[in-house]
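User: Structure tokens for both sequences below?

Assistant:
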Amino acid sequence: MNDILNDSNLRDDALRLLNNAAGNFATHSTLLEQAPSIVNLFDDVSPTVKGCIVTFVNVLAYNGECRATLLDAGVLRLLITSIQSHDPLLWPTDAAIAIANLVDRDHPAMHEVRDNHVIELLTDALDSTIRDEPFPAGSHEFYTDWKLMMGISKLAANVQNREILKHHKIHRTIKRALSRIRNRNTTYYALKTIWYLDENIPND
């Protein structure tokens, strides 16, 4: 592994391969062992390879068994860096989805979710997705509605996030999503979000 890390070309190719491998759920426990090393490389690689790292983290973050290890490895810093960059090569929307999955409703970093407009990014992406439009506008990237809705439902579990979601007209977006449903997971997470928003469920 040290030989790979010391050769920039080998390192970048290895990171791309790891990113591809993350699509296979069965590989996650093995890939997770490399998370600290991958996080440490983030500042030293090209924007394209940074984007590979962001998408790698995003895929692993869907797996609940990976989240604690990812957080311990320090992935929040690189995800927030991605969002703040506004650089499509760093996949800021993927970073926002990953943060939503990683940060529980009472996590100390929840204020960074609000400060870095993670909620706005996800609601805008969902609005475009249910319109069958790319996000960001003008790009060639299309997201999956249920994955975005899952992240939004997790953020809605936090009381302070609910007014932001309402301000961004999440009820209207959810209504539109439910009218053209494609996946039962979308329905589940949409209804869960509405439950949080309308019932004033406390954080605890």
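Moving on to the next sequence.
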Amino acid sequence: MGSYSEPYYNICDRKITKFVTEKHLKAEPDRKKRAEECGAMVRERILAYGEDCLWNADQSGFEYEMRPGRTLDFVGAKHVLALTQSQNSMTHSYTVMMCVSPGVRKFLPVLFITLQEPKGVFGPLVKKSMFKAGNLYVTASTSGKMTKQLYIEWCVKAFFPQMNQHCIFLADSWPMFADQGAVDEVKPEELE
């Protein structure tokens, strides 16, 4: 017999992508049960209200200038330089919050964008010269990433105004999405 890494056993050397505790493994059956219950609830609601009530949102972060981590240079080079448009574009980012549905209305008509600004707000010159469009809602944060307050603002300005009576909002496990109490405070009463 050969070693376990032989293709015969369908085992190979792999990079570890995540470390988990024993607690994580013990919670697996409960997690699977909750996922099945959630799936059943979503199917029930879709049957009752149609696919237009189902929405999924996620945020995508982008850097203004993508940078490679590696390049080619002569063997033994001590410093490897790469050209950039500006140093600022290498460290600044922005976030787009996209919301989709399998129903007739495939996307929310308003795209929520969070830009990075040093003080977390736009200065008067930026406000004055910023491109404006009816389908964009542009905000700022110090990191260019969504915050809890910006998530609530997204709910109020971009999401809730587009919902009709019934809504199923599916989101990932980002902690801001999990704060149902904060969302309930700003949710219109007529929205279920």
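User: Anything stand out in the second?

Assistant: The helical segments are 22-49, 87-91, 124-129, 148-159, 175-178, 180-186.
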